[in-house]
Amino acid sequence: MLENRDYTLIIDKSGSMATPDQKGGRNRWTAAQESTLALASKCEQFDPDGITIYVFSGRFKRYENVTSAKVAQVFRENDPSGTTDLAAVLKHATDDYFQRKSTGQTKPNGETILVVTDGEPDDRKAVMKVIIEASRRMDRDEELAISFIQVGTDPQATRFLKVLDDELQSAGAKFDICDTITMDDMEDLSLSEVLLNAITD
């Protein structure tokens, strides 16, 4: 299930990512970098042409064919600042998948989008709408998976991500395509399990 699949990482670089509430006094941005590097190395085993990385706050930037060796450079070029326009970057990533699908450029097993974020998006409803609309364009449940990985312990963010995980089908999604996990949960799982949970949630 993890083979023959594309992987996209979306990384939050909003201002709150500078909050130093991680182990050893590190900020969320540094913690996200470590997880991103680990995820990128793992995804590379299944997606050898490198993964797509988006970094976003109020605007987003897209990097293609990123190998784990290039992850540090992406983090060096970006600093936490700005707002959290998650809906726009998620829409770009899902639209891009369906556009490639329509021209036969996707991998046979589809795509996993991993979103590393610490918080609440600027517009919750817009995020839900993007995910619901994406689910309605899908032909089968496993083809597109979106996994939210929460950095930090903002309780409002946790609640919102739980809604994405559990309640989107009752709000009109065709498939349950979201899975959410915290950085702390991630420490107890292997990265393969994290990636599998995204697909089989």
Total beta strand runs: 6
**Distance between termini?**
13 Å
* Number of helical segments with 4 or more residues: 7
Poorly predicted regions are: none
Shape: globular
Estimate the mean pLDDT confidence: 93
Report the major sheet. Answer: 6 strands, mixed
Radius of gyration: 15 Å
The strand order across the widest sheet is: 3-2-1-4-5-6
What share of residues is helical? 40-55%
> Strand content of the residues, in percent?
15-25%
Structural class: alpha/beta
- Return the string of H and E elements: EHEEHHEHEHEHH
Domain VWFA: 6-199
Protein name: VWA domain-containing protein
Organism: Dendronalium phyllosphericum CENA369
Description:
With 201 residues, the protein is α/β, with parallel strands linked by helices. 41% of the residues lie in helices and 19% in strands. The protein has helices at 28-46, 71-76, 86-102, 124-136, 155-166, 183-187, 191-200; strands spanning 6-12, 51-56, 60-66, 111-117, 144-150, 178-182. Strands 3-2-1-4-5-6 form a 6-stranded mixed β-sheet, with helices on both faces. Strand 1, helix 1 and strand 2 form a beta-alpha-beta unit. Helix 3 (86-102) runs parallel beside helix 4 (124-136). The radius of gyration is 15 Å and the shape is globular. The mean pLDDT is 93. InterPro entries: VWF_A, vWFA_dom_sf. This is VWA domain-containing protein. Residues 6-199 form the VWFA domain. It comes from Dendronalium phyllosphericum CENA369.
